[in-house]
Design goal:
Length: about 300
């Protein structure tokens, strides 16, 4: 049944009033929803940044120790002590974890930027299409009816996109706090404690020269002492290396899991859910997956 003139006037006026309120309203954020979303993005980026800082600190310490050599030249006789390549696995793992963390931080940053753009522009864009829809209500021909349908779908899509990231971020926050947070905090603390063993290598000081015989005597005692120090430091490194690698692997798996959930699974799931609800409420048939029709698809 076609709407009467009075119904058209009410619908058109109602749409224009809502569009005007949206277009000129200084408030673009929904208090509870957007506050939680902002908190989630800030906390998630900060925590990922702290994990990255810990990882880079370990990598820097390992790199310095791994590539360092001590050159002693008592009485013109050269002696070189190299800290071996035994720390290569840790160096490799920290590089891999750094890449994962950079990807996670970048994805969070892109999502946060997309969310902020959506918060700022969605009300104005929605208002423009709502005004168009309010005008189209007055026309009845088939071409206008088709345009009316397209405009309705665009409005639904704008609404879905506006609420998709906030709802997804709240779900992400719940999953992170209940399934990932404690493990990540504990693993970061264990890594920080374990990485302190590398500071032992920086405590070795070459003795000052005190003449020809003094240099020989000091260097001889220094070589004995430094050999013991290196032995103890390397022994501690080997003992803790397994634990360090396990923690680095664990942190890598945790952040890969978070990345898959927060970037792929939840946003797509929320988007699909909203589209299904919109189709039910407005009796539309918006596709969840948009297919491209081209020469390859034509028979």
């Amino acid at each position: 049944m076609k709407p009467t003139l009075k119904q058209k006037a009410i619908l058109s006026l109602f749409g224009i009033l809502i569009a005007t309120a949206l277009f000129f309203s200084p408030v673009t954020k929904i208090p509870l929803l957007d506050t939680k979303t902002d908190t989630y993005f800030n906390d998630a980026i900060t925590k990922a940044g702290l994990a990255y800082a810990t990882c880079r600190a370990i990598n820097a310490s390992v790199s310095v120790v791994k590539d360092s050599t001590l050159q002693l030249e008592p009485a013109g006789v050269g002696v070189s002590l190299a800290v071996g390549q035994i720390l290569d696995p840790i160096d490799d793992m920290t590089e891999r974890l750094s890449s994962v963390l950079v990807t996670a931080i970048t994805s969070l940053g892109v999502q946060k930027l997309s969310y902020e753009i959506g918060v700022t522009l969605a009300p104005q864009v929605f208002a423009v299409f709502l005004i168009i829809l309010s005008i189209l209500v007055w026309f009845n021909n088939d071409r206008i009816a088709s345009l009316h349908k397209i405009t309705t779908r665009i409005l639904i899509l704008i609404a879905v996109l506006r609420f998709c990231l906030p709802v997804s971020s709240i779900a992400n926050d719940y999953i992170y706090k209940n399934y990932f947070s404690e493990q990540i905090i504990a693993t970061n603390q264990e890594l920080t404690v374990s990485s302190r063993i590398f500071d032992q290598f920086g405590d070795i000081v070459v003795p000052e020269a005190t003449g020809f015989w003094g240099t020989i005597e000091n260097s001889t005692s220094f070589i004995k002492k430094v050999s013991v120090d290196f032995k103890n430091a390397l022994k501690a490194s080997v003992t803790d290396m397994k634990e360090i690698i396990e923690n680095l692997l664990k942190l890598t798996f945790l952040y890969v899991g978070i990345f898959i959930i927060q970037v792929i699974i939840l946003p797509l799931l929320i988007f699909w859910f909203f589209i299904k609800i919109a189709n039910t409420l407005f009796q539309t048939n918006n596709p969840v997956i948009f297919k491209t029709v081209g020469p390859m698809n034509e028979k």
